[in-house]
Automatic annotation (TrEMBL):
PANTHER family xrefs: DYNAMIN, DYNAMIN-LIKE PROTEIN C
Domain Dynamin GTPase, chain residue ranges per copy: 8-228
Pfam families: Dynamin_N (PF00350)
Listed InterPro entries: Dynamin, Dynamin_GTPase, Dynamin_N, P-loop_NTPase
Taxonomic superkingdom: Eukaryota
Protein name: Dynamin GTPase domain-containing protein
Length: 725
């Protein structure tokens, strides 16, 4: 790429690619290097641009000055006798040639459009001339140190914010223009240092060197060029004098002749002052241009491979997007949409089983603290009052309950962020603790005991009195806490939707993809992209959760009703399992005699609670004059019986939750998804979605064409350069 033509072609190729990628495809973050011109007003930025263009001109920016970026593309054209000026149309992105006066007007009008504000939308200007250099820079509005009123100060602040946005982009090389002088007073360079402390992408241009000639001596000239120690060695810097003449007088000589004379004068003056040879390459405009041409060639040549890599990645992404859009378009066909929606729902239902079995690296996850707070916030928003949100009145707030679970009970995995089956297991531990706080809410009074005994055709025993009191006083507290258990399980399943969808989506291209249905990724994309399919699946899922909650509460209430109507049958204890020794060396299967001996012991142990309660019942006096003593014993017996029932229910809450909620739901969810029906409104929405997909598919196809053009252009240029050697 050492020839002038190859260098110009390189800039043209990358410039065209940049236009198509950033403007037509709307992709801003792309590895395309560029030079940005920075400086305060009146430091000579405009004259530097004229020197690079090789002719004198003046962009008319109105009374408020420059208010938007101007991207200038200089192209060296040796055969041209006059320069050609082009402006890129902001609507069509095509380059249009104009006379220089018309270009100045177009640029001025673009700045005036901004009014008293700024715009990040750039103006593109290209100059082709035998006198200009091969370069591309972004001319930014100058920093303004002084404002006459608040309106001007507001504009100055907006300009600084916009310029700093360009400076923060690490792909941009900053051309910092300052007046020749003390390095400590260079305010623009200080801004560059704040964003680029090591000056890896900063180039300092000290203008108006001729005004400093008389202050330089053989003793200080080298130190001045070196910044008297204020400029680090890593900072590339140049000192030069740009063409100038007295205000109000015509240009005394051709512009390029003045430029060459100023360059020669800078070099002669600095040499006469005894400047070291190691610094002479940093003096004068021509040395600056020589450095910039090499720097541009190096940067843009190095950018080809990263740009190609990004374009290929972009092509892969665009191809997948086009494929997904076409899949959705085909699947939303009116004749197939119902089947597609049901298939997506069935895949979602089966994927829930895998998530409940435990899948790593799924989001979202929660620890128990976050889970309880989210649950309480959800029901506080709904205004739920049909169940107790706290297990006991002894807890003043949710924070007290959380502290109790974390510090006193020390629930396993309390602070671990989990979802799926692991979260359900932790949930079971929490609701069991919640249930165990159930107490008979009111005091059983003497009148209640006497009233419950009454009279009957047959004799009423104290056993019957206990049953009446339990049914009346103890049923409701336990029932409200059972409702809490059901609501917690329902809410748990409802928040698993995103985790299940992520599981389905992440399978694509993963090593475990072959272990699951190949339809999962496809259906996950459909659910995410198609709001109507997602709504239908989510609605059916939530309805299933709601139905299972109602069935859970109903079955549990039926169980409680039967329990309190005849607690003595329920209180037959489960088989007691003997402790297992840690030493398994002598472990063996039980013999037939061992089994025969074990069965009577188990049958006997099952009636342990009932025997104890029957023993207490016999101690309650039946004589009228001993009613006070009888009331006390009945109250104690009711509390003991309730504690036995509560313990049995809490011991089996996980079994009830599995049997009454989780298993029925997971078994019937797939069936419910297969019964999804679409309303006429849904069908109309699907048709509207298909109509919107058509232009999206066309846009994706056009994007692929643009990307292919960019790749072909870059690869063709690279092959041409390789052929040139």
């Amino acid at each position: 790429m050492s020839s002038v033509g190859a260098k110009s072609e390189l800039l043209n190729v990358l410039g065209d690619v940049k236009v198509r990628v950033q403007d037509k495809l709307g992709i801003v973050d792309f590895p395309m290097p560029q030079f940005i011109l920075l400086g305060r007003q009146s430091v000579g930025k405009s004259r530097l641009i004229e020197a690079l263009a090789g002719e004198c001109f003046n962009f008319i920016s109105g009374t408020l000055g420059s208010r938007r970026p101007t991207i200038l593309e200089f192209r060296h054209a040796p055969g041209y006798t006059i320069s050609k000026w082009f402006v890129r149309d902001r609507k069509t992105n095509h380059w249009m040639e104009y006379p220089i006066d018309q270009v100045m007007k177009i640029v001025g009008d673009a700045h005036e459009e901004c009014g008293a504000s700024v715009s990040h939308e750039a103006i593109y200007v290209r100059i082709e001339s035998s006198a200009c250099v091969d370069m591309q820079i972004v001319d930014l509005p100058g920093f303004r140190d002084f404002a006459i009123d608040t309106g001007k100060q507001d504009l100055a602040d907006k300009i600084e914010t916009m310029v700093m946005t360009f400076m923060k982009d690490k792909r941009n090389v900053m051309l910092c223009v300052e007046q020749a002088g003390d390095a400590a007073t260079m305010s623009t360079l200080a801004k560059c240092r704040s964003l680029d402390p090591e000056f890896k992408r900063t180039i300092l241009i000290r203008n108006k060197l001729d005004k400093y000639y008389n202050d330089l001596t053989p003793d200080n000239v080298s130190k001045w060029v070196d910044g008297f120690g204020d400029l680090p060695d890593s900072l590339v810097r140049f000192a030069l004098t740009l063409p100038w003449w007295h205000d109000g007088s015509p240009m005394p000589k051709p512009f390029n002749q003045i430029k060459d004379e100023m360059d020669a004068n800078d070099k002669n003056q600095m040499a006469s002052k005894g400047l070291s040879d190691m610094y002479m390459d940093t003096i004068g405009f021509k040395n600056f241009v020589k450095f910039m041409e090499k720097k541009i060639e190096q940067m843009f040549a190095e950018a080809i491979d990263p740009v190609l890599t990004n374009l290929k990645d972009l092509k892969s992404t665009a191809s997948n997007q086009k494929k997904d859009l076409e899949t959705e378009y085909n699947d939303t066909d009116p004749h197939r949409i119902l089947s597609t929606t049901r298939d997506c729902g069935i895949s979602f239902a089966t994927a829930l089983t895998h998530v409940m079995e435990g899948v790593l690296d799924l989001q979202p996850v929660m620890n128990l603290d976050e889970e309880l707070r989210a649950f309480h916030h959800y029901h506080a928003t709904l205004g739920s009052n049909h169940f107790s949100l706290l297990p006991s009145e002894d807890f003043c707030s949710l924070q007290d309950y959380i502290d109790y679970l974390r510090n006193e009970i020390q629930i396993g995995a309390f602070d671990v962020e989990v979802n799926g089956g692991a979260q359900f297991r932790r949930l079971m531990m929490e609701v069991e603790i919640f249930l165990r706080f159930s107490e008979i809410a009111v005091e059983i009074k003497k009148r209640d005991v006497i009233q419950a005994r009454g009279v009957s055709m047959s004799s009423l025993t104290w056993r019957d009195v206990v049953v009446k009191l339990l049914s009346h006083e103890a049923h409701l507290p336990l029932q409200r806490r059972v409702a809490y258990v059901g609501e917690r399980i329902k809410w748990f399943f409802e928040i698993q939707k995103d985790a299940v969808l992520e599981f389905m989506e992440k399978l694509e291209g993963s090593p475990t993809a072959n272990l699951f249905s190949p339809l999962y990724p496809k259906h996950a994309k459909l659910i995410k992209q198609n709001a109507m399919i997602k709504h239908a699946v989510w609605q059916t899922y939530d309805q299933t959760c709601g139905r299972q909650l109602r069935q859970f509460v109903e079955l549990f209430e039926n169980m409680l009703t039967s329990t309190f109507s005849n607690p003595w049958v329920f209180l037959k204890g489960a088989t007691t399992i003997p402790a297992i020794s840690g030493d398994l060396e002598d472990a063996m299967l039980p013999s037939f005699d061992d089994t025969k001996n074990r069965i009577p012991r188990e049958i006997e142990s099952r009636s342990g609670n009932e025997v104890a309660i029957s023993h207490w019942l016999t101690k309650i006096p039946a004589e009228p004059h001993e009613i006070d003593q009888a009331v006390d014993k009945v109250q104690i017996l009711v509390l003991h019986t309730y504690s036995f029932i509560r313990s049995q229910v809490c011991d089996q809450v996980e079994l009830f939750s599995e049997s009454f909620f989780k298993l029925p739901m997971m078994r019937r969810l797939e069936e419910d998804m297969a019964k999804i029906e679409l309303t006429p409104e849904d069908k109309a929405n699907y048709q509207a979605r298909r109509e919107r997909l058509e232009p999206e598919i066309k846009l994706a196809e056009e994007s692929l064409v643009e990307i292919d053009w960019c790749i072909d252009r870059l690869q063709g240029f690279k092959l041409k350069c390789d052929a040139r050697g």
